[in-house]
What does this fold into?
Amino acid sequence: MTAAPPPPPADLDPRLLEVLVCPVSRAPLFYDRARGELISNAAKLAYPIRDGVPIMLPEEARSLEE
It folds into this structure.
C-alpha cells in the first residue's frame, strides 16, 4: 500500500508576504508555492512554511547555494 501524496501547499496571505522580510538581509521575500518556501535571493536562503506558518529562523532555512 502506498502513501497518498501530500496535499499541495496552501496559498500564503499576500498581506503577510508584503510585511515579511528576510531576518538576515532585511530584503523582500518571494513565495515559492511549489516548494512551500519563502525565498530570500539576497541571503540565498529558503525559509520553510509549516502548517501555513512561515518559519523565519536562519537555522531552519535551507541554503540556496547547494
User: Anything to note?
Assistant: The beta strands are 30-32, 37-40, 45-50, 53-54, 62-63. Residues 14-19 form the longest helix (6 residues). Residues 6 and 36 are 12 Å apart (CA to CA).
